[in-house]
Specification:
The chain is of the alpha/beta class. It has one domain (about 5-25, about 40-195). The protein is built from three helices and ten strands; from the N terminus they run αββββββαβββαβ. Strands 2-3-10-6-4-5 form a six-stranded mixed β-barrel. Strands 7-8-9 form a three-stranded antiparallel β-sheet. A hairpin with a 2-residue loop joins strand 8 and strand 9 (about 160).
Length: about 200
């Protein structure tokens, strides 16, 4: 299996693990353990993974916001109007996601006209430091062990700046400092609050 196929497979596991819980909505008939409201995706295990919705923090325009996940994919043809959902090294002291490895997420900016609450369809990408970025010092990696792939250089920063905006990621990619790898997974998430 080549690296691209292994990355897609592992990324699907990552996104499915983080967002699978969101395939079902929290219904009034939820069990008492789930009645307290939406939970952090990191806290979901076992039966809950496919029974309750969940949230995780994401970066949008350099600010952490909360995103609620509602679906892990689409059947049929992939939609054409997708926004990026970048998965990279933690940009702070605590990773936004823990399974299957510590990571953060970056999405496009939240629209100001509606207070940042909106639905969005997202295409998932890994952001890795390129060989050129590592050798030049332009990209600082965090080596992360990903089952089936080994240790990969998830991007922590580029040109001395955290990668907390899509603009910074795309600029670092254009400069050859990071490699953006499409995972091939489409998810649905809604920005629900600023932290």
């Amino acid at each position: 299996m080549n690296l691209s196929t292994r990355l897609r497979t592992t990324a699907r596991i990552l996104v499915a693990t983080a967002a699978l819980a969101a395939t079902a909505f929290v219904l009034p008939a939820a069990s008492p353990a789930n009645a307290g409201g939406l939970r952090d995706c990191v806290d979901l295990t076992g039966h809950d993974l496919d029974q309750v919705g969940c949230w995780e923090d994401v970066w949008a325009d350099g600010e952490e916001v909360r995103m609620t996940f509602s679906n892990t994919g689409f059947r049929g043809e992939t939609p054409r109007d997708l926004s990026p959902f970048y998965v990279l090294a933690s940009q702070g002291d605590v990773a936004q996601g823990a399974l299957p490895f510590g990571h953060d997420h970056v999405i496009d900016r939240s629209p100001a006209h509606n207070g940042g609450t909106y639905g969005v369809r997202l295409a998932t990408f890994f952001v890795l430091c390129s060989g050129e970025g590592i050798v030049s010092g332009g990209c600082v990696p965090t080596m992360s062990h990903i089952e089936g792939l080994g240790d990969l250089p998830l991007a922590k920063s580029a040109n001395g700046q955290p990668l907390t905006t899509t603009g910074r990621i795309e600029s670092a990619s254009a400069a050859g400092l990071v490699t953006v790898i499409p995972v091939g997974v489409v998810i649905v998430g809604t920005v629900t609050a600023n932290d």
